[in-house]
Design goal:
Length: about 375
């Protein structure tokens, strides 16, 4: 075989190998960008969206073009999903990343009815989800929920999506109404389905149930209807629930002090952030009774210390009642200086022994 023939055959084989490598790299890049884009969509709660990258795109290897489709709740949501992919992956680690995202619309892309919005309390979080008309209303609901739950240690999580088609009337105030009621109950959820506001929850007792029912119906915006489903359960908490609730109370008091005016039973702080947290914790522990015990240090007259400790515990109980903790769950004890945590005769021991202690058990 001549040198010329060998050269031609070698050139042909090199071209074939390069072509296979070209397509293999292009396939790999398209697949990788598709996975990365799907991850961005999932992290932003665009669960409706699907993204495809075509390795055989005729615009050439330099361009990475995604095709975004799916039943978006609104045009705004679809545009936001496109923007989030481009902002996250336009400079992805090779050759410019995603070049463009084409919006593929279909007859399923119109807003779905009914217009649904919801707030759920789960695992020390309140999750706001569903449809919301504008970014301004979204921010307003987040701010309102944050304020309502600020004393209960519950974090607000936003999973709401912009969507047109909200019913006429004061939709935002109605959603806030639902948030306020579940914040009062401290559990379960509220759901706004078009103009119907549903609130589901468990009240600590009959009185708390009546308060919640009154709050649901009070000043509801015109055109909207309340659909309450609130129950209360007087059955005793299990031992596991009691132990778990005791740990929650102990955790609050481990880093907090309830302060009183010197030599008096009056609370120094009004409103009291520590007791607000205790009250919110009590709401999450139905079926439990709570002994509120006052303790003093050993200085002074024993009988006077016992009276002071009892009076301070009574002040705490009165505050908790004002925060809708049922009176029949609360009991008061005053132990004076008879149960010290530290028997030393110094200021550190005195401060440790002056305390309010919460002991939980199951209701009888």
């Amino acid at each position: 075989m001549s040198k010329v023939s060998k050269f031609i055959i070698g050139l042909f084989l090199a071209t074939v190998i390069a072509a296979f490598a070209h397509f293999a790299v292009r396939d790999k890049m398209a697949d990788l960008l598709q996975k990365r884009s799907a991850g961005v969509l999932a992290s932003k709660n665009h669960n409706w969206a699907k993204i495809r990258f075509l390795a055989n795109d005729d615009r050439g290897m330099r361009y990475r073009v995604g095709y975004l489709s799916g039943p978006a709740p609104s045009d705004e949501a679809r545009a936001m999903a496109r923007t989030e992919i481009l902002s996250s992956l336009s400079t992805y680690n090779f050759d410019g990343g995603v070049h463009d995202v084409v919006l593929v619309t279909d007859r399923n892309s119109q807003p779905k009815l009914p217009y649904m919005w919801r707030a759920d309390i789960k695992d020390k979080q309140v999750i706001l989800s569903g449809m919301v008309p504008t970014e301004t209303i979204r921010a307003d609901l987040i701010s309102y929920a944050t304020d309502k739950f600020k004393d209960s240690g519950i974090t607000v999580i936003d999973k709401m999506l912009l969507a047109s088609g909200a019913p006429d009337g004061d939709w935002a105030s109605t959603a806030k109404h639902g948030i306020a009621v579940i914040a009062l109950l401290g559990n379960e959820y509220t759901e706004l389905n078009d103009t119907n506001l549903k609130v589901v929850g468990h009240a600590a007792n009959a009185a708390s149930k009546d308060i919640a029912l009154s709050a649901i119906s009070n000043a509801l915006p015109s055109g909207f209807m309340a659909m309450p489903d609130i129950v209360f359960d007087n059955s005793p908490a299990t031992q596991a629930v009691v132990e778990n609730c005791q740990k929650q109370f102990d955790a609050v008091m481990a880093t907090s002090v309830i302060e009183f005016d010197t030599g008096k039973a009056s609370l120094r702080e009004q409103p009291n952030k520590v007791l607000d947290t205790i009250a919110a914790t009590a709401v999450h522990c139905p079926g439990t009774r709570i002994e509120v015990a006052g303790h003093t240090d050993k200085r002074g007259i024993a009988s006077a210390n016992q009276v002071l400790s009892l009076s301070r515990a009574a002040s705490v109980v009165a505050y908790l009642k004002s925060k809708n903790v049922a009176a029949d769950r609360l009991s008061v004890k005053g132990y004076g200086s008879t149960r010290p945590l530290d028997t030393a005769d110094n200021e550190v021991a005195y401060q440790k022994n002056r305390r309010i202690q919460f002991t939980l058990g199951a209701v009888h």
